Amino acid sequence: MSSISTHVLDTGLGRPAAGVPVRLSRVAAGEVAVLGEGITDADGRITDFQPGLESGTYQLWFDVAAYAGASGQSMFFPEVTVTFTITDERHHHVPLLLSPFAYSTYRGS
């Protein structure tokens, strides 16, 4: 069984993105089932998403608009959804790098 964590960094401001609402869902047979929700901590992290995830397709949805409003910024993308597949039992870390007009993500460690 796998586990998932995330880390959001505001590259425009050069600091962790604290207060970003994030939702973890599983995608199967065209259905999306929410497994958990959280808000990034002062270091921009959520480390306690539901452990024990089986192989399959998952999504992390980031409410960028809520973060932008709370931090007094304007962001071109109001939300980001990262869809990924778990195929093994390792820990999966999915960071998100934000800036006002772009975002990127990768498979972290």
Automatic annotation (TrEMBL):
Encoding gene (name): uraH
Keywords in alphabetical order: Hydrolase, Purine metabolism
Catalytic activity: 5-hydroxyisourate + H2O = 5-hydroxy-2-oxo-4-ureido-2,5-dihydro-1H-imidazole-5-carboxylate + H(+)
Enzyme Commission number, as recorded: 3.5.2.17
Domain spans labelled Transthyretin/hydroxyisourate hydrolase: 4-108
SUPFAM superfamilies registered for this protein in UniProt: Transthyretin (synonym: prealbumin)
Chain positions recorded as substrate binding sites: 7, 45, 106
PROSITE patterns hit by this protein: TRANSTHYRETIN_1
InterPro entries per UniProt: Hydroxyisourate_hydrolase (IPR014306), Thyroxine_BS (IPR023418), Transthyretin/HIU_hydrolase (IPR000895), Transthyretin/HIU_hydrolase_d (IPR023416), Transthyretin/HIU_hydrolase_sf (IPR036817)
Record bears the keyword Lipid biosynthesis: no
Naturally occurring in which organism (per UniProt): Kribbella turkmenica
Name the record gives this protein: 5-hydroxyisourate hydrolase
One GO term of the biological process aspect: purine nucleobase metabolic process
Top EC class of this enzyme: hydrolase
Keyword Hydrolase part of the UniProt annotation: yes
Family: Belongs to the transthyretin family. 5-hydroxyisourate hydrolase subfamily.
Function: Catalyzes the hydrolysis of 5-hydroxyisourate (HIU) to 2-oxo-4-hydroxy-4-carboxy-5-ureidoimidazoline (OHCU).
MF (Gene Ontology): hydroxyisourate hydrolase activity
Record PANTHER family: 5-HYDROXYISOURATE HYDROLASE (PTHR10395:SF7), URICASE AND TRANSTHYRETIN-RELATED (PTHR10395)
Subunit description: Homotetramer.
